[in-house]
Structures are given as structure tokens and as C-alpha cells.
Design brief:
single chain, D-Maltodextrin-Binding Protein, domain 2, 2 domains, 3-stranded antiparallel β-sheet, 8 helices, 12 strands, signal
Length: 272
């Protein structure tokens, strides 16, 4: 093999410098993708635009809410600032399939962790637990027994839908793509009640004075987690590490107090 001449050495050096510059110093250089992302320099997130205070779009069309702010903080700890995290709204029922099929890196929408869901996607450690609530304007609905013969709305694919079909067996369960469409149906009398998360129900109850939080059911056995593609342990473990850091330094507590004022804080998420 012949020895390289001076011109060859200079060309190789220049190419190396260009490659280094192209790699940049961003959250994940183009030559490296440690979290197996769709785009090494960006985290693509699927979410919902109408699940306030968890995830929603504000008057400017920007995603906001407890889950959104928490995920942004977690992503920042991984090296991804706000400009390197993109959120896209979808119907809840499409979120898990979209992660499983590689459309999104993560799904973030107060998604409860269940064994059935873990068959198709993986979850981070839990970061939120609470109650499931029946919202209605009918004074006669005070317990699950009172739902017999009633039309009860639930967002398709949620824990509420699964719970309702299992426990409200004498009710007619009506699926909706999102909470807003269900609340419209409730206000128009198309359904008698809507079954949703407690915090979201509280927001709708404040907005529509005729609607009351009639039944609250504990849901601490299926805590919300960030959803990642099955087998992407690198991303899942990194999210877990950053998530626990956010809990230990008080960030989680601060965000919870901001978005859920007056609601009890689960001890498992507070600094030790």
C-alpha cells in the first residue's frame, strides 16, 4: 500500500472537520442516536389537545398542561430543549398504535399503565394517579346503580371506557373520540353522563355550572406513564431516570400544585 501524500492528508483532515461540524453539539448529534428516536435530534410526541389540565392546546395553539410541562422538563434533563420536542394532537385511541407503529417516539396524555396496554407498548414509571369521575346534570345520579338504563359517554380507548364496560353493565356506553365532543353530547342531552378523569371533570364542572361531579372512583392501580415503543429500553430508562430526578428535586410537586390546586398529592411522587 502506498503512503498517503500531503494532499491526501489535507483532504482527509478537511473532511473530518466538516463531519465534526455537521455533527453539531445539539441534544443528539447526527452521528449518534442513543435513544433510538425517529429523528436523532428531536423527540416526537403524540398527545391530546382537549384533556385539560393534563394536555391541551391554549389560545395560541401551543400544547400545555401538567403532563406537557412535566415531559418538557424530563426531556430537558435528557438534553432536549423546548425547540427539540414536538407535540402532535391525536384522538386518544390512536396514540398507542402510533407509538407502536413508529409515528411518535412517545405518547403523553395521562395514559394509565395496564397489562393489556403493555402487550403492545412500554411505559415509563408512573407519575400520576387519581380518580375516575361521572359528570352529569341529573340530580338523581349519585351512585353507579343510578346509571342503570342511562347513556354514559367515555372516550374511546381510555381506562374509563374499559371500567365502564366492565362495571356499568346496565348502562349504554357511548364512545367519543375526545372529551369535548362528549361534553357537547352531554349538554345537548344526547347522553346522560360522561365518565372521565377527575381533574378534567373538575375543569368542565367549573365551565358548565349545570354539570356536577356525581361519582368519584379511585384509580391508583393504573398510574399514568409516558408511552414508548416496545423494546426501546434506552429511551424508557432515560425517561425514568429524569422523571425520578424531577420528583426528588421538587419539580413534580411544583407542577402538581400549579395544575391541580387543592388536590391531594400522592406520597410516592414527593421528594424523599
Amino acid at each position: 500500500m502506498k503512503n498517503p501524500n500531503r494532499r491526501d492528508v489535507m483532504a482527509a483532515t478537511a473532511l473530518g472537520a466538516l463531519a465534526w461540524l455537521a455533527g453539531g453539539s445539539g441534544p443528539a448529534a447526527a452521528s449518534s442516536n442513543p435513544y433510538n428516536l425517529i429523528d436523532a435530534g428531536m423527540i416526537s410526541v403524540g398527545s391530546m389537545g382537549d384533556a385539560k389540565p393534563y394536555t391541551f392546546t391554549d389560545a395560541n395553539g401551543e400544547f400545555s398542561g401538567f403532563d406537557i410541562e412535566l415531559f418538557r422538563d424530563v426531556a430537558r434533563r435528557l438534553g432536549f430543549d423546548k425547540d427539540h420536542v414536538t407535540f402532535t394532537g391525536q384522538d386518544f385511541s390512536a396514540l398507542l398504535p402510533s407509538v407502536a407503529n413508529g409515528r411518535f417516539d412517545v405518547a403523553v396524555a395521562a395514559i394509565g399503565t395496564t397489562e393489556a396496554r403493555k402487550k403492545t407498548v412500554d411505559f415509563s414509571d408512573g407519575y400520576l394517579a387519581g380518580y375516575l369521575t361521572v359528570l352529569t346534570s341529573q340530580a338523581g345520579i349519585k351512585s353507579a346503580d343510578d346509571l342503570a338504563g342511562k347513556r354514559v359517554g367515555a372516550v374511546q380507548g381510555t381506562l374509563q371506557e374499559t371500567y365502564a364496560k366492565t362495571h356499568f353493565t346496565k348502562s349504554d356506553i357511548v364512545n367519543f373520540p375526545d372529551n369535548n365532543s362528549a361534553i357537547s353530547a352531554l349538554n345537548s342531552g344526547t347522553v346522560d353522563a360522561h365518565f372521565l378523569d377527575y381533574e378534567a371533570a373538575k375543569q368542565y364542572g367549573e365551565r358548565f355550572k349545570d354539570l356536577k361531579l356525581a361519582i368519584n372512583i379511585p384509580s391508583f392501580d393504573a398510574p399514568a406513564g409516558f408511552v414508548v415503543k416496545k423494546g426501546n429500553d434506552a429511551l424508557r430508562q432515560a425517561l425514568n431516570k429524569a422523571l425520578h430526578e424531577a420528583m426528588q428535586d421538587g419539580t413534580w410537586k411544583t407542577l402538581y400544585a400549579k395544575w391541580f390546586p387543592g388536590s391531594p398529592m400522592p406520597e410516592q411522587y414527593l421528594p424523599k
